[in-house]
Design goal:
The complex is a heterodimer of chains A (151) and B (140).
Chain A: E1 9-12, H1 13-25, E2 32-42, E3 45-56, E4 58-60, E5 65-67, H2 71-82, E6 85-92, H3 102-111, E7 118-123, E8 128-135, E9 138-140, E10 144-149
Chain B: E1 12-13, E2 23-29, H1 39-48, H2 51-84, H3 87-91, E3 99-107, E4 110-117, H4 122-125, E5 132-138
Antiparallel strand pairs in B: 3-4, 4-5
């Protein structure tokens, strides 16, 4: 394996399943949560590890989702305990595919502005997902891998 | 309103999971790749499995076998019960292809007829709990 094969993002399968289960439970409404993990470098290349997903209590409809006041305090306490970073956010698009809407791009720009912060979008009906990062005025798909921690 | 503070710490040097024996890479996506389904990854996850996962799969197969057996027995019971009222016709070679009739004796004015359910496949027939029933058919 060469250094070029080092991905930008490594998503833990358990975190992905946790998010998926949350989104299915909240159907037909949208739902959201934070992706927790950490950022690292390897031979000069920065990479992100997503290790956990934390649901955020939110006011949701079939087409939009907004976190409730106070929901973030709980996440903040969890972050302190686990010594993790918020490496992005995840939300569902029930039945309308995986992409970032204009509102999603704005959310990403305002609240997840760092280069290492990603947006995970899951369509629980089609059981598909995708990961995006902002680059300039648009969003792109990073090179990412899914991993399972053995044992 | 989202209002959290990010800790701005510098990234630590660490080899990615590709180089770490504690991890296994199960999927890889580059920009431009197509759909990224979750369900196939669940099957892949099961394939990687521990003993518990294999036991779960075994349990699933056993459940399917049990359901098939129950369905087969229900079918056999239905065929035999409807054959009981048509025993004479079956004896004459008519009616259902899955029930054969054989005269096994006579009692008074009646014949005793043995009705046997058979799918034609021995392995399936061995799963049927009640394959034979007897019925008296009056003579004349």
């Amino acid at each position: 394996m060469s250094d070029a094969d080092v991905a930008d993002v490594y998503v833990n399968f358990d975190a992905l399943l946790k998010a998926y289960e949350h989104f299915v439970r909240k159907l037909p409404k949208e739902a959201m949560g934070f992706l927790l993990g950490d950022r690292y470098t390897y031979r000069g290349k920065e990479w992100i590890e997503v290790t956990d997903y934390v649901p955020v209590e939110a006011e949701a409809s079939e087409t939009r989702v907004t976190p409730l006041e106070g929901a973030l305090v709980k996440v903040g306490k969890l972050l302190q305990r686990k010594k993790l970073l918020i490496v992005g956010w995840a939300h569902s698009h029930p039945g309308y595919g995986c992409f970032l809407s204009n509102i999603d791009v704005e959310t990403q720009r305002r609240y997840f502005p760092y280069d290492y912060q990603v947006a995970l979008v899951v369509d629980p009906y089609s059981m598909e997902y995708d990961i995006f990062v902002l680059r300039g005025d648009t969003y792109v798909r990073p090179y990412f891998k899914e991993v399972i921690k053995k044992g | 309103m989202l209002n959290y503070r990010l800790r701005r710490r510098e990234p630590k040097e660490r080899p990615p999971p590709d180089y770490d024996d504690r991890y296994e890479v199960i999927a890889e996506y580059k920009a431009g790749d197509g759909k990224r389904p979750i369900i196939p990854l669940i099957f892949k996850f099961l394939r990687e499995g521990t003993l518990v996962k294999y036991l779960l799969i075994l349990l699933l197969i056993l459940n399917l076998l049990l359901l098939s057996t129950v369905a087969l027995n229900a079918w056999a019971a239905y065929e035999l019960s409807s054959a009981q009222s048509n025993a004479a016709e079956i004896l004459a070679g008519r009616h259902t292809p899955f029930v054969k009739a054989r005269e096994v004796g006579v009692t008074g004015d009646a014949k005793i007829i043995e009705l046997t359910f058979s799918t034609g496949i021995d392995a399936l027939d061995s799963l049927v709990w009640v394959r034979k029933v007897y019925v008296k058919v009056g003579v004349g």
